[in-house]
Amino acid sequence: MAHALTLRRLDLRALPAPEPMERILDCLGTLQRGERLLALTPRPPLPLLPILDEGGFAYHVYAAATGDACIAICHAEDRHALQPPRAA
Question: Quick one: which H or E segment has residue 19?
Answer without folding.
Answer: helix 19-28
